[in-house]
Design goal:
heterodimer, A: mainly beta, 7-stranded mixed β-sheet, about 0% helix, globular, B: mainly beta, 6-stranded mixed β-sheet, 5-stranded antiparallel β-sheet
Chain lengths: ~110, ~110
């Protein structure tokens, strides 16, 4: 069990550029979640998938954000036309619903928009 | 609307003593509660959880207490160790869906 992995760990980009993050969940976990954390706050929910189906999206997820989980395994989160307000830690978590509600988090991707 | 609140931004405890971190919630539909520990530049690490049908869950040095009538939960760490210094988040979930987090409490264990 290698845990949840995220790539890249850090990303610095210029305002207006597009960025894409990847998350690989724990093997056989059927749920995958994306959260965003800014300084001094707890993580905030963005969206989640059960297998390949995207079941819920937060109102925080503007139309510049899109997430996919095409084969029910890894997921990508893309931010188009980045803004300075998008600077945050983007966290991915996974869970196996049949074993309760515990979500296990990856190390996160730190995004800095200049 | 902050559904999960941690009213103490920071807590300082002497090594070997008990650390008590508190969390309040407003949504009575939450059915599962979790505590996570977070170091800088890392993702949250799961510590312990409790179902709403229980009032206590213990795992080694960590015990979580749930008072449903008061909509309050607490995490007890005893004895506290220097490696426990981190930010602690409580989180709540309804129906195995998204986690709702508190703002976190920074715990510092002093030697």
């Amino acid at each position: 069990d290698t845990g949840v992995s995220q790539d890249p760990r850090h990303k610095i980009t210029k305002r207006g550029q597009n960025v894409t993050f990847r998350c690989d969940p724990i093997s056989e976990h059927n749920r995958l979640y994306w959260y965003r954390q800014t300084l001094g706050q707890g993580p905030e929910f963005l969206t989640y998938f059960q297998n390949e189906a995207q079941l819920e999206k937060s109102r925080l997820l503007s139309d510049r954000f899109s997430a996919e989980r095409p084969k029910g395994s890894f997921s990508t989160l893309e931010i188009q036309r980045t803004e300075q307000g998008d600077s945050a830690m983007y966290l991915c978590a996974s869970s196996l619903v049949l074993e309760g509600d515990t979500q296990y988090f990856g190390p996160g991707t730190r995004l800095t928009v200049l | 609307d902050q559904q999960v609140k941690q009213n103490s931004p920071s807590l300082s405890v002497q090594e070997g003593r008990i650390s008590i971190l508190n969390c309040d919630y407003t949504n009575s539909m939450f059915d599962y509660f979790l505590w996570y520990k977070k170091y800088p530049a890392e993702g949250p690490t799961f510590l312990i959880s409790i179902s709403s049908i229980k009032d206590k869950n213990e795992d080694g040095r960590f015990t979580v207490f749930l008072n449903k009538s008061a909509k309050h939960l607490s995490l007890h760490i005893v004895p506290s160790q220097p490696g426990d210094s981190a930010v602690y988040f409580c989180a709540a979930v309804q129906g195995a869906q998204k986690l709702v987090f508190g703002q976190g409490t920074r715990l510092t264990i002093n030697p």
